[in-house]
Amino acid sequence: DGQVLADFGCEPQEQVVDSVYAATMTRMLESVATVGTASRLRWRYGLYNVPLAGKTGTSQNHADGWFIGYTPKLVVGAWVGGDSPLVRFRNFEYGQGAATALPVCALFLRQVIREPGLENWKEGAFHQPPPEILRRLDCPLRIKSPEELLRDSLMADSLFRDSLRLADSLLLDMPVLESG
After folding, report:
1. pTM for this structure?
2. Per-residue exposure over 79-111, b if at least 16 CB sit within 10 Å of its own CB, e if not
């Protein structure tokens, strides 16, 4: 009925992270929600015109998945997993935070958008880093594969080429250990 049951006030707050660092980190985490592991917030759950930043995570053996996300006015997080070592997801596809915890947060955020009277949580915008920082963050969305690097004439140094081949062969020859 709108009656306030208790008001505990707010304690004075102290800023512990420089605003430029915070804006830079938020800018990087926005890309996670736009083109990264949390992009399904937009294409699967329809959170298109909402300023979002966040990070997914997965523990070893796919035992735990988590997601922490935020807007300029709201923070949300979820963890999905189990304390027992017997609880595991079958593989990374099912066990990653983007597949387990992110949907919990996405459904909550979507419900908040649709709830009458709560629409204003999605208003506002993140503070942007200074232009010189933005220029440094303007980098390719993916790193070239070893094969692409080898074809690049600037990377033709034989030592570099040999080290790439060695690293690639080490990765291919590594045993995959499954715990049962």
Report:
1. 0.68
2. ebbeeeeeebbeeeeebbbbbbbbbbbbeebee
